[in-house]
């Protein structure tokens, strides 16, 4: 058997061995295969890398191919890369070549790319500049606009002078769209080079006079970014902005309204009653403010609202019906900050409506309502139910609603609110339940009638199963008891009983403090609690330990017979505690309460120190501003209402970068006449005071027939130019005085000529008659499709009429002639040529400046260009040649095509050689275009590219 | 204003970025992720987050966070409103606004964003203008484009940009001229335990789909305009006419748009279309709870209540629910504890009910709050406020359009506390 066994065994071992060996072999054979596979894997990895690289190569090839579709495909992929945040900058040279592509989509994608990477590849980006310069003179306003957009978005400091010129040109463009783009470009240039501020302000000033609704929002935005403190620029445009407001696009409305809010606070006197503070909470003053206002102020002088102030309020009111929540909020804050107390209620309904909107909108609106509801309960009280919390609301929405409900609570509605709160306390969202308990506490302190009810309700909550709820209740009860330390010993006893079950340290500490503070009311329980605490002292949290020491000290002073030993024990424990605070406190307390020879006079007062009656804490909203109190230095939390409503700063309760303070009302209103605008047209007979009555009339139009109003506005003019330079209101008022003299003389002239006609008719006809000579002088063709000819005498800089693309939009055109109106709206026609010369002179000045800057750019050749060629019809030829000498070479081909340029112009031959192949193609197109002749945008004096750059032909590379 | 935009999906990946000024590193989103982590639910992320150098304003829609980066003071609602407008535009273009749709159309998205903002300031947000600039991608158009080589990008300035009616493009032509108006009202209500109404209000909108040739000038009048308490209009509505005559007079945009949204004055008693009988109990000690829910029609003015969907967030302690619906189907998600019951149509003869038991976590104490029940429903051919359109007239064009009006009532935020 044994033998058999052993042989079997050996056999088995042998078999095992062979098996193992074969397995090893197998492994051996396997291994190289594996490694092969591995190799393959690594290979493929590297090949992937290669293909990735090759992918970019691939894109490069595609971009350089001749096929438009391939290029487009490549650009789409490049944009995909940009969108994912991947770096595609190495393709820059390949991409930038396509900037002059005919394919508009390709071009746009190239623009996207350029704007993204130009900052990183400044030298290469310069390659594209000439294309944009050319496009700036394209007859298609859309192309001009987008060229300016991209040109100004390229953040390359070296082209600042070019941008500056382009902006100036575009600001005088006939197309409001291009002017709008130039307003945007102002901000871009400013952020690129703040040194240009002064020049940019000039452009802003010019654009502010623009009467196109399209431009208004953008230019005010530029104003806010570049020179928000130059309030003097607004004076002359104030009424116009107010009147245009309803027709401005919604985003512009927001910007204009917030700017006007700031403006109004510096220019008008307070409509709020003297003495009675704006932040009054009492309903009486709130409801009677209207009548009392008059009574109070009669002693001094009755408050009469500035008509301009009224105009603003009246014109913004319809915007409360806007679908854009930002606009509604903006109007609401305007009313809040500017309207007389009794008018603020008009915004309530609209604000409540916004609560139906998206969660994020709700959040912001609720924040603002919370601030408002503290100061004016009456505003939102009728809408209380709109603030009821739904279980589906997000937590921050819930807390805000709770906040508002608490603010709205008063004697009448408190029972409803408390019933509602009862539901919230049971909420599954425990943080919210805790917030509700705090809210109940606030209601209880604010409304004395319900304090007892609230207190008993809170005591019931002490038996709640949830710890946070119990803890919060304890804390709130503690505060409540402090406010009414009468016979609440029952509650304290109840809490002492609960003490063992409560684990949240804050709640434990609160109970200990309560027992210590009112130990005379619970003389039997207090020592017992101390005894229990002595047992668990070492295991407690710091805050509980401190309160234990506190309790011990107080008991020692009142009941030393029973607690002396306990106190000493606790003080000993505290002496060796790990925490500094507790050791310090223990030492302090010991010295204070235990009489020994070292402790001085203080010992006598220990009782009075420790058991002094303490003021009750104030339970109030975090949105509440403590009136007249400076915020506690150690709290960051300050009152939110110091910020303008609706702003980011208000939302965050910290001052955001760029926040503009809302100034206090001036005690005496600055001169109102600065807002008067000189009117050239005869003023209606009934309106000797120029602007005001007129405004009153026009203000209540919603979709007003702008034509006539704009006409009226067209008058604001000559004075404003000067007034802008004089920053002080005093000097400008002097000026305006002289203006009004002028104006009145004019008035009499005109009215006499137009006597007997109906007012509006007379205005029209008179302006017609006035514009007649101008038209003869300046415009060669009558504008097409104009409903009212006088509404559209065209720019003095131009000699044609609006571009054809614009034909359908007559109103936009009519509004486009604003700045020129203002420039040459001198009353007597003979004066215009002089003016114009002045204009022209001012232009060369700018150019000389730019020339200096350009030399920094290493420009090689300057060649004379026909700046303002259209003007040549007006300017004497000698002046023209002077100008040509001053100005820079013009790469554009406008002159070739422009019919208005004198054929003898010396620069015709100079233009084309510098232009690349694509450029010449463009020229061809332009020449073919018959409309080109009619179109007459002022061709900007263009900067040629540095020669070395130009030598990089786009095609050959 | 708006500096950059980041699109972040539910799993926290930034899948699209766009910068309007100089590039802001995407690491700025880390602050957002931090806030996201702190928030228990996706909706709890605060809309405004301050960071040391920037401010992040975000909007959550379709499970995508649209995070705008701004650098200086700007009204937060301005940014929020704009972001929502962006989402609406995407939805308008691609049908849905999902991560996949955005990724598929990344070029169009980029082109759109480029047109919508210039230097961070809104340039063109009107759908009619945008559609002229960038044509929405359709399969047919993509095919045509690949063959003919034409593009989706318009070459001319959209006519709307300059006109007095920026919302309407010119040269609109249809063979069938139609104008449809949907009056949709939503009831927001909170019903308390005993079935009495705590608060109820009606909000309504009039959505229009207008496909009319040329420049039609429409007027829409109501039988009972007094019902409308607070209104907000599409910019096309002439406010003066409304003030004076309570008539909606407007030149409509082309296509779909929201003409009006309104709030019905709160004096009117709101009819609550359904009632809920509920009995949800948890017994102390046992790990079972009872769930019993019955729905019934209340004030429906003879119309049937359709598409009823009941949902409820059950307490955290509930492990599972074993229920038996008399009609429709129910689902219970054990992770989110969300119970949904798709009821369908309510048959007044045989009231739908959902009965059964819930199993609770063993040893867990009884939840102290009963769940709230959210109800969605639809009632066709009725506006619950009783609002009625009187007539629709068209001026300015010769042809005779086909006009249609539809009424519908829905439940908005309709909650029943139990």
TrEMBL record, chain A:
Chief location of this protein within or outside the cell: membrane
Gene3D superfamilies: Leucine-rich Repeat Variant
The keyword Transmembrane helix is annotated on this UniProt entry: no
Keywords: Membrane, Protein transport, Transport
Subcellular location: Endomembrane system
Region described as Disordered: spans on this chain: 691-849, 892-913, 926-957
Family membership: Belongs to the adaptor complexes large subunit family.
The protein's name in its UniProt record: AP-3 complex subunit beta
Originating species: Eleginops maclovinus
Automatic annotation (TrEMBL), chain B:
Source organism, top-level taxon: Eukaryota
Any one Pfam family match given in the protein's UniProt record, by short name: Adap_comp_sub
Family annotation (InterPro entries): Adaptor_comp_med_subunit, AP2_Mu_C_sf, AP_mu_sigma_su, Clathrin_mu, Clathrin_mu_CS, Longin-like_dom_sf, MHD
Residue span, MHD domain: 176-417
Presence of keyword Thylakoid: no
Topology term for the membrane: Peripheral membrane protein
Keyword Protein transport: yes
SUPFAM superfamilies: Second domain of Mu2 adaptin subunit (ap50) of ap2 adaptor, SNARE-like
GO CC terms: clathrin adaptor complex; cytoplasmic vesicle membrane; Golgi apparatus
UniProt entry keywords in alphabetical sequence: Cytoplasmic vesicle, Golgi apparatus, Membrane, Protein transport, Transport
GO terms of biological process kind: intracellular protein transport; vesicle-mediated transport
Localisation per UniProt entry: Cytoplasmic vesicle membrane; Golgi apparatus
Similarity remark: Belongs to the adaptor complexes medium subunit family.
Protein name per its UniProtKB record: MHD domain-containing protein
Taxon lineage: Eukaryota, Metazoa, Chordata, Craniata, Vertebrata
């Amino acid at each position: 058997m044994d033998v058999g066994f052993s042989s079997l065994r050996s056999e088995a071992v042998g078999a095992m061995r062979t098996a193992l060996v074969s397995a090893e072999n197998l492994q051996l054979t396997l291994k190289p295969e594996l490694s092969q596979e591995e190799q393959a894997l690594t290979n493929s990895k590297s090949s992937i890398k290669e293909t990735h690289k090759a992918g970019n190569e691939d894109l490069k090839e595609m971009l350089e191919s001749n096929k438009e579709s391939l290029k487009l495909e490549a650009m789409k992929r490049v944009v995909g890369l940009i969108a994912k945040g991947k770096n595609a900058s190495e393709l820059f040279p390949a991409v930038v070549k396509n900037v002059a592509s005919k394919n508009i989509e390709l071009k746009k994608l190239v623009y996207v790319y350029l704007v993204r990477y130009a900052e990183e590849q400044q030298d290469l980006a310069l390659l594209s500049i000439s294309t944009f310069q050319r496009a700036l003179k394209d007859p298609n306003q859309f192309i001009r606009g987008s060229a300016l957009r991209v040109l100004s978005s390229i953040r390359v400091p070296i082209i600042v002078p070019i941008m500056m010129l382009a902006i100036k040109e575009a600001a005088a463009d006939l197309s409001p769209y291009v002017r709008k783009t130039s307003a945007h470009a102002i901000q871009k240039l400013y952020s690129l080079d703040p040194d240009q501020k002064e020049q940019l302000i000039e452009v802003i000033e010019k654009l502010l006079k623009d009467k196109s609704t399209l431009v208004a929002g953008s230019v005010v935005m530029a104003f806010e970014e570049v020179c928000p403190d130059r309030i003097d620029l607004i004076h002359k445009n104030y009424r116009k902005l107010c009147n245009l407001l309803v027709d401005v696009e919604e985003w512009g409305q927001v910007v204009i309204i917030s700017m006007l809010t700031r403006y109004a606070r510096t220019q008008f006197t307070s409509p709020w009653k003297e003495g009675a503070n704006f932040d009054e909470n009492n309903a009486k003053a709130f409801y009677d403010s209207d009548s009392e206002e008059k009574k109070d102020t009669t002693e001094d002088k009755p408050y009469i609202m500035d008509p301009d102030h009224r105009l603003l309020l009246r014109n913004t009111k319809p915007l409360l019906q806007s679908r854009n929540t930002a606009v509604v909020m903006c109007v609401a804050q305007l009313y809040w900050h500017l309207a007389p107390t009794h008018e603020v209620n008009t915004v309530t309904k609209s604000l409540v409506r916004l609560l139906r909107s998206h969660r994020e909108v709700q959040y912001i609106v609720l924040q603002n309502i919370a601030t408002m509801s503290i100061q004016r309960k009456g505003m939102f009280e009728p809408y209380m139910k709109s603030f009821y919390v739904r279980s589906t609301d997000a937590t921050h929405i819930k807390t805000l609603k709770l906040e508002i409900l608490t603010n709205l609570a008063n004697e009448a509605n408190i029972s409803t609110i408390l019933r509602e709160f009862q539901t919230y306390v049971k909420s599954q969202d425990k943080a919210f339940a805790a917030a509700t308990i705090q809210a109940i506490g606030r209601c209880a302190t604010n409304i004395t009638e319900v304090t007892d009810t609230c207190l008993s309700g809170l005591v019931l909550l002490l038996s709640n199963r949830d710890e946070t709820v119990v803890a919060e209740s304890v804390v709130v009860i503690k505060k409540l008891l402090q406010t009414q330390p009468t016979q609440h010993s029952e509650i304290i006893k109840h809490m002492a009983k609960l003490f063992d079950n409560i684990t949240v340290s804050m709640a434990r500490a609160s109970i200990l403090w309560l027992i210590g503070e009112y130990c005379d009311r619970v003389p039997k329980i207090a020592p017992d609690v101390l005894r229990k605490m002595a047992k668990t002292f070492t295991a407690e949290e710091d805050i509980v330990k401190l309160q234990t020491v506190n309790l011990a000290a107080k008991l020692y002073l009142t009941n030393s017979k029973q607690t002396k030993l306990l106190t000493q024990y606790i003080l000993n424990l505290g002496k060796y505690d790990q925490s500094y605070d507790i050791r310090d406190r223990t030492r302090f307390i010991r010295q204070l309460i235990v009489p020994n020879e070292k402790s001085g006079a203080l010992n006598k007062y220990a009782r009075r120190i420790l058991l002094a009656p303490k003021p009750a804490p104030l339970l109030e909203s975090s949105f509440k501003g403590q009136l007249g109190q400076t915020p506690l230095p150690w709290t960051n939390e300050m009152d939110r209402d110091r910020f303008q409503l609706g702003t980011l700063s208000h939302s965050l309760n910290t001052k955001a970068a760029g926040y503009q303070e809302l100034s206090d009302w001036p005690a005496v209103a600055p001169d109102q006449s600065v807002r008067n605008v000189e009117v050239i047209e005869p003023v209606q007979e009934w309106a000797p005071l120029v602007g005001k009555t007129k405004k009153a009339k026009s203000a209540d139009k919603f979709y007003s027939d702008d034509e006539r109003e704009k006409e009226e506005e067209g008058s604001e003019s000559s004075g404003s130019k000067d007034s802008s330079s004089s920053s002080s209101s005093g000097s400008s008022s002097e000026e305006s005085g002289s203006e009004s003299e002028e104006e009145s003389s004019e008035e009499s002239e005109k009215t006499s000529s137009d006597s007997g006609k109906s007012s509006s008719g007379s205005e029209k006809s008179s302006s017609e008659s006035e514009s007649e000579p101008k038209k003869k002088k300046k415009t060669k063709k009558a504008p097409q499709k104009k409903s009212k000819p006088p509404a559209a005498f065209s720019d003095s800089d131009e000699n044609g009429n609006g571009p054809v693309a614009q034909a359908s939009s007559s109103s936009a055109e009519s509004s486009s002639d604003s700045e020129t109106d203002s420039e040459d709206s001198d009353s007597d026609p003979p004066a215009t040529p002089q003016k114009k010369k002045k204009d022209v002179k001012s232009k060369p000045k700018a150019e000389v400046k730019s020339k200096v800057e350009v030399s920094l750019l290493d420009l090689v050749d300057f060649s004379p260009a026909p700046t303002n060629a259209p003007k040549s019809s007006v300017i004497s030829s000698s002046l023209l040649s002077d100008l040509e000498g001053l100005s820079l070479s013009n790469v554009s081909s406008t002159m070739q095509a422009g019919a208005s340029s004198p054929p003898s112009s010396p620069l015709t031959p100079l233009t084309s050689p510098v232009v690349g192949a694509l450029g010449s193609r463009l020229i061809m197109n332009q020449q073919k275009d018959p409309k080109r002749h009619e179109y007459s945008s002022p061709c900007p004096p263009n900067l040629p590219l540095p020669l070395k750059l130009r030598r990089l032909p786009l095609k050959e590379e | 204003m708006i500096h950059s935009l980041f699109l972040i999906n539910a799993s926290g990946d930034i899948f699209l970025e766009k910068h309007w000024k100089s590039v802001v590193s995407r690491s700025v989103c880390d602050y957002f992720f931090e806030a996201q982590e702190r928030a228990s639910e996706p909706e709890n992320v605060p809309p405004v987050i301050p960071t040391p150098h920037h401010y992040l304003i975000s909007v959550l829609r379709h499970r995508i966070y649209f995070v705008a980066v701004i650098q200086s003071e700007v009204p937060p609602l301005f940014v929020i409103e704009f972001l929502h407008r962006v989402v609406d535009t995407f939805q308008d273009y691609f049908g849905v606004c999902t991560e996949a749709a955005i990724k598929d159309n990344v070029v169009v998205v980029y082109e759109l964003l480029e047109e919508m903002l210039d230097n961070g300031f809104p340039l063109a947000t009107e759908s009619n203008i945008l559609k002229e600039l960038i044509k929405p991608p359709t399969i047919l158009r993509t095919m045509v484009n690949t063959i003919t080589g034409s593009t989706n990008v318009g070459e001319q300035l959209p006519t709307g940009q300059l006109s007095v009616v920026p919302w309407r493009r010119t040269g609109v032509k249809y063979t069938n001229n139609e104008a449809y108006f949907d009056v949709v009202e939503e009831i927001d209500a909170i019903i308390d335990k005993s079935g009495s109404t705590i608060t109820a209000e009606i909000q309504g909108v009039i959505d229009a789909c207008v496909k009319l040739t040329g420049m039609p000038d429409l007027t829409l009048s109501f039988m009972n305009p007094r019902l409308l308490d607070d209104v907000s209009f599409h910019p096309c509505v002439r406010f003066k006419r409304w003030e004076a005559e309570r008539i909606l007079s407007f030149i409509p945009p082309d296509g779909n748009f929201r003409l009006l949204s309104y709030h019905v004055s709160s004096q009117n008693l709101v009819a609550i279309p359904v009632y809920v009988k509920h009995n949800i109990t948890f017994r102390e000690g046992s790990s079972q709870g009872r769930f019993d829910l019955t729905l019934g029609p209340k004030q429906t003015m003879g119309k049937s209540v359709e598409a009823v969907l009941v949902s409820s967030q059950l307490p955290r302690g509930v492990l599972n629910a074993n229920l038996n619906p008399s009609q429709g189907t129910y689902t219970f998600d054990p992770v989110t504890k969300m119970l949904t019951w798709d009821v369908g149509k309510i048959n007044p003869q045989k009231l739908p009910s959902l009965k059964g038991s819930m199993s609770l976590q063993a040893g867990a104490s009884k939840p102290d709050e009963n769940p709230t029940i959210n109800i969605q429903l639809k009632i066709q051919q009725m506006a619950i406020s009783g609002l009625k359109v009187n007539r629709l007239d068209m001026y300015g064009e010769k042809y005779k359009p086909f006009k249609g009006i539809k009424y519908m009532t829905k439940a908005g935020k309709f909650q029943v506390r139990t």
